[in-house]
Amino acid sequence: MKKISTKILLLLFAFTAVTGLRSQAQTLSEVLTNKETPIYYFGIDFTKAKLIGDAAAKADDIVARQFDGINDLMVNESKKYDIAGAFRKDELNSDLSFVSKRNQKRDPETLLSSSSEDYNHLKESDITTLVKGFNTGDKKGTGLLFVVDGMSKPKKELSVWVTLFDIRSKKILITERVEGSVGMGFSFRNYWATGFKKVIDNIKSSKYAAWKSK
Length: 214
Hints:
Elements: H1 6-24, H2 28-33, E1 39-45, E2 50-52, H3 59-76, H4 83-86, E3 93-94, H5 97-104, E4 112-113, H6 124-132, E5 142-152, E6 157-166, E7 172-181, H7 188-212
Parallel strand pairs: 1-3, 1-5, 2-4, 2-5
Antiparallel strand pairs: 5-6, 6-7
């Protein structure tokens, strides 16, 4: 009986490993058409965000408290900010710890802007790079991340890259820029939270169907 060489064994092992990863990775169609396919929500990433036309804003406080405040609100008031419903899921597992650590490291000096061009300054390649460097711990399956592009006081709108990705491989399943208008709010958190609600409502009413048909 001939012995199988070490090289062949290694090749067989590598092939098996890659095949296994492919079989576990979700496709966009599976995630959106199968109600039982779970989505893991990682929160709102503000590390690339630009706050435009708000010279009186206190950037230090926004980084220290407000980013976490908005993220916590989305989860604590999940019936109002119905991310699960927008993606036709009964519920979403979530872990905001990874995005919180990232947001806390944001340099306040780079947050404020007076340029209207910063409202749309991110590209799809920026999101791909961000996701590749995003720490997801030992989580598996499909991740959902909102990456903030611009928050414009003059336009009374915010723009967010809604991103679904395979957690293990960091492959982007879909990322698309979605806008949401802001309304009344007596605090920084509540003012901008209305914009995120509009983004979520936009996904629920039209974006989901468009993405599902791809």
